[in-house]
Write a structure and sequence with these properties.
Helix content is about 65%, strand content about 0%. The chain has helices at about 25-35, 40-45, 60-80, 85-90, 95-105, 110-125, 135-150, 155. α1 (about 25-35) crosses α2. Mean pLDDT is about 80; it is low at about 150-159.
Length: about 160
Amino acid sequence: MAAQGYAEGQSVNKPPLFDGEDYNYWKTRMEFFLQGLDFQLWSIIEEGDLVVLNNRENWTNDDKKKISLNCKAKSILCYALCKKEFNRISACKSAMDMWEKLRITYEGTNKVKETRIDILVAQYERFQMQPGESITQNVQQIHGYHQWFGWSWKELRHG
């Protein structure tokens, strides 16, 4: 029997590939993927890895576990990136630094994000249905704003 192959996104064992397109989609899928493998992997990326002050021969089991988790998170991130994106983050020493470099590259700094949000809020406030536009198209556009802002329909209905 031939081995069954899985394309990206079709196996829980293979991380979603980021090729430089649609960062927000990849970021969300990657977060879910890492949390699904081991929630501590996501914690290492989100909170950063530890600083081990002891010499290697004096590492505690806890030190070894955290260092191992950081190495595993870095490895998974590398497998999830095309060559161009890998080259962008390859000099980073921690998984958190890798994640942050990608975030700043594709989302910008907090100041850039605030400016983008201001622009989107202004567009949202001026939003109106265009002549010839179907209700479905209109709802999809509104839904796009809500996804970007992280709003849910439930939150909107309940104010």
